[in-house]
Amino acid sequence: MPPNILLVRFSAIGDILLLTPLVRALRRRHPEARITVVTRATFAPLLAHNPHLTSLLEWDALTPLADLGSRLKALDFSHRLDLHGSLRSHALRRYVGGKWTTYPKHRVARTVLIHTKRDMYRDRRPVAERYFDAARELEVEPDGGSLEIFLSRAELEGAQAFLTSRGLGSRRQLIAIAPGAAHFTKRWPPHHWIALVRRLVEAGNDVVTLGGPEDLGIAEAVAAAGAEHAASAAGAFDLSGTAALLKRARALVSGDTGVMHLATAVDTPVVALFGPTVEPFGFFPYHAKATVLQRDLGCRPCSSHGGAACPLRHHRCMQDLQPMDVMEALRRLPR
User: Fold this and answer.
1) If you classify domain 4-138 with CATH, what class do you get?
2) In 145-289, at which residue ranges do the beta strands (DSSP E only) sit?
């Protein structure tokens, strides 16, 4: 009997996209399998058109976990993969019952590295490949491919209409930038973004700034530096629409954010700016045309996800990355 496989990953953008190589490998190894992913409704567009899935179940915080668990328990899965490893996913596992497998999060090594700067990571694999440990009984291996997101014609046409209406990307090369981030310490300073946009426009590029509604202020301020050759799309598109815009761009410049992984998923080259986080955590651009800019500072890493303020109050990990460094990295990106 073909396997009936459940994968649970509630959030966030990057983490969900990083499971797509596993989903692809499962489908290729078990073409007749039922493959179901459970994720938060907010992030469901990332997987909405994925042809490797049999079913995508959306969960929102208004639905009790017990109700979700009862629904999943009735589906009688043969394999249950917890790809989140949170208190919420552990609670869901109790409601669903049965045997579960998970993947290594290396919490101890991460904590030691943050607090002592001693690198105890023996597993250097990116998170996309650590996920495969949860599927060890299903005999799958990474195929060397990148992340995936599948876009509808309407989403691609909507992105193009936005760019056309603002006169972007038709006669000049289009560069996308994502100036926002959930945590302050992951954000490149606004004056650097503004200087970068001016350099990009002077060099003959158009610029589109990306982000969610929470990034509207910084995205519009940065886009204003490019005058008629730049526009903000922050808050105007959902995740799939943002991916469609990225697909039209020559490259993306961003911090360590979900938008970075979106660009990877549509095969758009990336210049990624890393500050408080480091490669052993497993979230560098995965199998991508990418350049990571970072500074070798004794205070890095200072957190696993970024924080509200630099612990040393200088924020050099991001301040020291210069717009000219980004311009040079863009020049060297492969096509």
Assistant:
1) alpha beta
2) 173-178, 205-209, 230-232, 251-255, 270-273
